Amino acid sequence: MRPIAILLLALGLLASPQTRADVPEVRFAQQFSMGYLQFNVMKHQDLLQKHAAKLGIPEVKISYIVFNGPDMMNDALLSGAVDIASGGVPGLLTIWAKTRGTPQEVRGVAAMSQQVILLTSRDPNIRSIRDFKQGDRIALPAVKVSAQAVLLQMAAAKEWGDAAFDRLDGYTFSMSPPDATAGMMSPGGDFQNAFTVPPFQNMQLRDPAVHIVLSSEDVVGPSTGGTAWTSKRFHDANPKLYRAIVDAMQEASEFIAGHPRETAEYYAADTKGKIDIDLMVGLLKDPRYKYILAPHAMTKWSDFMFKMGRIKAKPETWKDLFWQEIHGLEGS
Question: Within the chain, which residues score under 70 in pLDDT?
Fold first, then answer.
């Protein structure tokens, strides 16, 4: 048995093999980021229950499980331990390419956010990726597979050529964004560089010793950051419940646009961390931060990952990656 299965079994999360089509339950996998705020809003306002009731499902059991990176999350999804996963575009592309055309097929539910992701440093000698040297360390959510790891590979390929796309991989190590931020705010720690997520990266930049080395906009431009995905098994077995999930995500997106402070307060309550509410409200008002279900710039990610052999297939259009419920949106 794989380690993830053993862990989930121990936690009582491993699903039974029988169909769950008649069980009004949804288990969401979530990460440390502002990229998935729809889930926070849905949780606090009972939006899934609201939309499920409209479709004739009077009661829905909902749970949220926090993961730090896509690998364990995808294992949990394939094992049936969670129903809806969330993560960056590389996580979706990886599981889509791996399961495409199989009974375990996975596709996206929807995009969730566009946001700017920053590589920061407190080393005054590091101003670009060319300045990293032996002994330097870069904290990011998950080595090789996280959005930050792939962005770093994209930047390396742009700087030194495709053959050197993994040149900086050896400098990276896995650490959750809250822990990486705590380390970055402590001079004299064992690392001085972090590629995290908002609002943690922006909290780091409140320290005058911390500066920006690389922005995701330098690499891919405006692009979908957070996405949600699910299995064919769950999608096909629960058509009404699935429709309610999409509708709840849409209402949550609209709420975020109109109520940034309440949204920030929901997020702070759920993370149970030291979140600067005013800072986060400012980010939510920044036009570069969008919470929309339409995916954007998906092929920039898929073309790179396919070219570098990270995935064995690539989508012809963004619609190949997502279930049909959002195909009417204007994506790219």
Answer: 1-23, 68-69
